[in-house]
Design a protein that fits this description.
The complex is a heterotrimer of chains A (362), B (290) and C (361). With 362 residues, chain A is α+β, with helices and mostly antiparallel strands. Chain A folds into two domains: 231 residues, 3-Layer(aba) Sandwich (Rossmann fold), CATH 3.40.50.300; 123 residues, OB fold (Dihydrolipoamide Acetyltransferase, E2P) (Beta Barrel), CATH 2.40.50.140. In chain A, helix 2 crosses helix 3 and helix 2 runs parallel beside helix 4. Chain A is elongated. Chain B is mainly α. Chain B has one domain: MetI-like (MetI-like fold). Chain B has a two-stranded antiparallel ribbon with strand order 1-2. In chain B, strand 1 and strand 2 form a beta hairpin. In chain B, helix 9 runs antiparallel to helix 12. Chain B is globular. The two termini of chain B are 29 Å apart. Chain C is an alpha+beta fold and 361 residues long. Chain C folds into two domains: 236 residues, P-loop containing nucleotide triphosphate hydrolases (Rossmann fold); 116 residues, no CATH class. Chain C contains nine helices and 23 strands. In chain C, helix 3 crosses helix 4 and helix 3 runs parallel beside helix 5. The longest helix of chain C is centred in the middle third of the chain and has 18 residues. Chain C is globular. Classes of the chains: A alpha+beta (362), B mainly alpha (290), C alpha+beta (361). Chain B: It is found in: Cell membrane.
């Protein structure tokens, strides 16, 4: 079983919701659609589900062309951001409803409902009505209903967005387990890079209706093909700096320069956009190759074990995430250090020229 | 958003199409047919072209009725919309008294048109009506069968009594949908009562008020039963509105051709004014400050 | 700006609260300092919104007093409290221009026009909406509207406190960053007393000078982000702050040593805990993987979250999480965990036990 989108696009009026997209999702994989609001995650899911017909292109499921086939005739389960359950039915009946539609026997239904309820920790709540449950329990009920459907394609559209932080953390841990047990194609839309990383599997990054990259989640994170992908897959956002390399020296900003060391020594002469993640900025040089930047501190935020430093580097706004609780004064000058092996080099049009050396090693 | 294409779906719409054809399109075509012909009974028809329309456009009768009709609708809207909003603003926000008010307010809406007319017809009579008699006793000269002003006042008061509740209920629903946070914010900003109304309540109510205005306009522009029962269009023709005039022409004088032309023009006028209302209001709603 | 004092404050939504559970807010005594930023953190239903509503004057407490500086405002209406508030969903006056939205609280108080213009200009600059001052608020994005709400909350210099009720809920993650930082800068610049309600630990920790952790109608700990991280006063704080939260394991304590799953663990300090349930709490950041010695553990799964890895282990049937740096590898023969002495806390019946002697403060 696999889901193949072949040259699929979606245009409504004069708006292109999804640009021509080719995508193959294999059976038994977890696929994350990562992108900001309105980047096309939901539109893409609707095309996958068959809720919308693509303007062009074909959708193949399990080797069959299912373009234009009604969603009812496909085996698709969907869970939304809002907790959607039948309010007048008990949790048991909610979970049982897709099984009843399939015409399963009462004993079979009972068995499968209990199995799903066990997995979702809903067993003590089976006789309650959805509105008597907390948000997390309601969403578990919706997930259990999607699960018993035994659908080949399970679409989860920001299912945890409306939940409390800690609940989100718990369910986020449960969802990959669920998915492993089912063997279906899972598609999970989210706006949060951290969530994509926690879910693992494959990630497709979306930006303005286009999939910018698709591949195993950690590799998309560590070797983004372009600056857009890096920006989408980075929270806090990746920092950027325009650099010019000539005579083995890197110059940046107002007449500042540094010797090109480490992996940057091999870079061909030219003008580039350097990108680096906040957690790779340091307050102390750890290697001899480290580059030094003079910045001005605008704000610090302390998380308890780490400190976010918001920096002004000659007009560029950078964010750094450094270890420990750092007591610094807003407005002060701050020197920060960057190991060249953590620097991504992008061409001026945004395409990746060379990934950070550490990522190649990993 | 266009959904999965399925041609079978059209069959589901078919019964509705047939129903609409029978209930609207075919009768309309009959009227169009009548409006361009003349008949002297016996099912004999003669081609009259646009003669009826021409005649009507040159007659004072139709223009008079149209003028009265416009005046009536304008007065009705000018009274009912502000009054309805005012009532809604002063209704309890919740609890027993809110439900109580809602029930009491709905009562006039449940009474059939001709009954409303009859109620007011009797209520206003000088000999046996409570209102008419009281006014007469107080020395106010009030006789809606002879005095045009009294007749107009009666018809308007009657309509206000009958329909203001509708506006109030719609406005109330609009008010209820305003999140509590807005009021809290206004308190914190030390906004005056008027500011709360002008910057929060009115903008948030604009959607339902638009519907209320449209409904009340169309309804009042087609008013027939109540004034017919109370005044019969009189004294003289002072309360003869368009629909009363039309019925007089069609059934009283049996001028079917002319009446058909009349009703077509009537229909077009309603369509036109409603369209203007709708466009103006939706534009108001969409306008973005630049 | 004012100091806020909560004196024997408690609230129940019932007329005759009988037992502990009937109180939405259990009795509390706190003093919140002038000019500091506080975050009320907890899951839904913990009482944080009730407390906020009491401070804003929307709810009158069943018991106790609330003072702004030395004035009792328990009975005072919202209008009299001289506060500003930013709500979960953007509250803007749609038909007004952005400028008038910002100026509204000042205009209503009859401020001088020159002063108003000056303030509005300054605020608009801070929230980055200088270019849009003349347009109507209607039709702006949720982000922009929420910025206006923040700006309106900030426009008055003389408010006693500014209250925030989960103000970033409707904002996109990328934008959250920007707004949160702006808020922090605004606080640094103007020094208002701020109270920020949220269920999101990152927001609470990064925004506040002091975080007030609430659980089941009670304040379980009030402290700096560092205190909450290093010395959680209650196992709930350990669990709620940090992701993943603190590992909690049953333990036998004998002076300076604990017995965890049959293995002795050096605590670096002496404890004499009393209670039914004695536990040791260690944050994942302080758990070290080991191949030779320590508490026996088996690796269940490793999650690569980018800047670090979360290792989920099983220790005698209890899940224990460890955080390992991005560039560190995990030995395939990992069979035990060790605890960093600096990160160990001891709990008796869920409350932290202060060491009787030794290193840990």
């Amino acid at each position: 079983m696999s889901l193949i989108l072949e040259g699929v696009s979606k245009i409504v009026g004069s708006n292109t919701h999804i640009h021509t997209t080719d995508l193959t999702l294999e059976k038994g994989t977890m696929n994350v659609l990562l992108g900001p609001t309105l980047s096309g995650k939901t539109s893409l899911m609707r095309l996958m589900a068959g809720l919308d017909k693509p303007t062009a292109g074909r959708v193949h499921w399990d080797g069959r062309d299912v373009t234009g086939m009604r969603v009812q005739d496909r085996k698709v389960a969907m869970v939304y951001q809002q907790f959607i359950n039948y309010p007048s039915m008990t949790v048991y009946d909610n979970i049982a409803s897709p099984l009843r539609l399939m015409g399963k026997s009462a004993s079979q239904i009972k068995e499968e409902v209990h199995k799903a309820a066990d997995l979702m920790q809903l067993t003590p709540l089976l006789q309650r009505k959805p509105l008597e449950l907390s948000g997390g329990q309601q969403q578990r009920c919706a997930l259990a209903r999607a699960l018993v459907k035994n659908a080949g394609l399970v679409l989860l559209d920001e299912p945890l967005a409306n939940l409390d932080y800690k609940l989100r953390e718990e369910l986020r841990e449960e969802i990959p387990k669920l998915f492993e047990a089912s063997g279906a194609v899972f598609v999970y839309a989210t706006t949060e890079p951290e969530e994509a990383l926690l879910l693992g599997g494959n990630t497709a990054t979306l930006w303005e209706g286009r999939i910018t990259q698709f591949g195993p989640t950690p590799s998309v994170y560590r070797t983004p093909v372009d600056a857009t992908t890096a920006r989408v897959f980075s929270d806090p956002p990746m920092n950027f700096l325009n650099i010019t390399k000539a005579n083995n020296r890197l110059s940046f900003g107002d007449a500042q320069s540094a010797e090109a060391k480490g992996s940057l020594a091999q870079l061909a002469d030219g003008t580039y956009m350097a990108g680096f993640r906040p957690n790779h900025l340091e307050l102390h040089a750890h290697t001899a190759d480290a580059m030094e930047f003079q910045t001005q501190l605008s704000v610090t935020e302390i998380t308890g074990s780490e400190t976010f430093v918001h920096l002004d580097h000659h007009g560029d706004r950078w964010v750094g995430l450094v270890h420990g609780v750092q007591m610094l004064t807003a407005g002060q000058a701050l020197n920060v250090y960057l190991d060249p092996s953590h620097v991504y080099i992008f061409a001026q049009d945004g395409t990746l020229v060379s990934p950070a050396a550490y990522a190649k090693a990993a | 958003m266009n959904k999965t294409v399925n041609h079978k779906a059209w069959f589901l719409v078919l019964p509705v199409l047939i129903l609409v054809a029978f209930s609207a399109v075919i009768p309309l075509m009959t009227v169009v047919n009548y409006s361009v012909q003349d008949t002297f009974g016996n099912n004999q028809f003669f081609w009259a072209g646009l003669e009826w329309f021409e005649e009507l456009l040159n007659s004072d009768r139709m223009w008079g009725a149209l003028g009265r009709q416009l005046a009536f609708s304008a007065i009705i809207l000018a009274i009912q919309i502000p009054l309805g909003v005012f009532i809604a603003l002063n209704m309890p926000k919740g609890g027993f008294w809110a439900s109580f008010c809602l029930v009491v307010m709905s009562l006039p809406l449940l009474i059939p048109w001709n009954v409303v007319g009859t109620i007011w017809q009797i209520f206003g009579r000088v000999d046996i009506g409570l209102l008419g008699h009281t006014l007469d006793w107080m020395g106010v000269s009030y006789n809606y069968t002879q005095n045009p002003v009294a007749a107009w006042i009666t018809v308007i008061v009657m309509d206000v009594w009958h329909w203001t509740s509708l506006v109030a209920l719609l406005a109330y629903a609009g008010l209820q949908s305003i999140p509590q946070a807005y009021y809290q914010a206004a308190k914190i900003d030390q906004a005056s009562r008027f500011s709360v109304f002008w910057y929060i309540e009115l903008p948030k109510m604009s959607g339902v008020l638009m519907i209320a205005i449209l409904l009340r306009f169309m309804d009042s522009f087609m008013i027939y039963t109540e004034p017919f029962v109370v005044t019969g269009g009189g004294p003289g023709s002072t309360t003869t509105f368009l629909s009363i005039d039309l019925v007089k022409m069609a059934l009283g004088q049996f001028d079917l051709g002319q009446a058909a032309a009349y009703s077509l023009m009537y229909f077009l006028v309603i369509l036109l004014i409603s369209w203007v209302f709708y466009t103006v209001m939706t534009n108001l709603d969409k306008r973005d400050g630049v | 700006m004012a100091k806020i004092t909560l004196e024997n404050l408690a609230h129940s939504y019932l007329d005759n609260p009988k037992n502990d559970d009937d109180w939405a807010l259990k009795e509390m005594n706190h003093v919140w300092n002038d000019g500091e930023a506080y975050a009320l953190l907890g899951s839904s239903g913990c009482g944080k919104s009730t407390l906020l509503n009491i401070i804003s004057g929307l709810v009158e407490p069943s018991q106790g007093r609330i003072l702004f500086d030395d004035f009792d405002v328990t009975q005072a209406a919202t209008t009299q409290r001289n506060i500003a508030q930013v709500f979960q969903f953007p509250v803007v006056y749609d038909t007004m221009t952005v400028r008038n939205n910002l100026a509204f609280p000042l205009m209503n108080r009859g401020a001088d026009i020159k002063y108003i213009n000056e303030r509005v200009r300054k605020i608009a600059e801070m929230i980055g909406m200088k270019e849009q001052l003349q347009r109507k608020a209607r039709g702006l994005t949720a982000d922009a509207k929420q910025k206006i709400s923040l700006g309106r909350g900030m426009v008055r210099e003389d408010v006693n406190a500014i209250l925030f009720d989960e103000p970033l809920t409707v904002i996109d993650p990328h934008m959250k960053w920007e707004l949160r930082t702006q808020l922090k800068s605004l606080h640094n610049e103007f020094g208002h007393t701020m109270i920020y309600v949220t269920h999101d630990q990152t927001e609470a920790l990064t925004f506040a000078d002091k975080v007030v952790v609430m659980y089941d109608g009670r304040v379980v700990q009030m402290g700096t982000p560092q205190e909450l991280f290093e010395r959680p006063a209650h196992t709930f704080v350990g669990y709620f702050i940090g992701s993943p939260g603190m590992n909690v394991l049953d333990a036998d304590i004998q002076g300076g040593q604990a017995n965890v799953a049959g293995t002795p663990v050096d605590l670096g300090a002496h404890y004499t805990p009393q209670g039914h349930k004695i536990q040791i709490g260690v944050r994942p950041e302080f758990v070290r993987l080991s191949t030779d010695g320590g508490i026996p553990a088996t690796v269940q799964r490793v999650e690569d979250v980018g800047r670090h890895k979360i290792v989920r282990l099983d220790v005698a049937g209890t899940e224990v999480n460890a955080i390992v740096g991005e560039d560190q590898s995990i030995a395939t023969d990992t069979n035990a965990v060790q605890f960093d002495v600096a990160g160990i806390n001891i709990y008796a019946d869920d409350w932290r036990v202060t060491p009787t002697q030794g290193a840990a403060p």
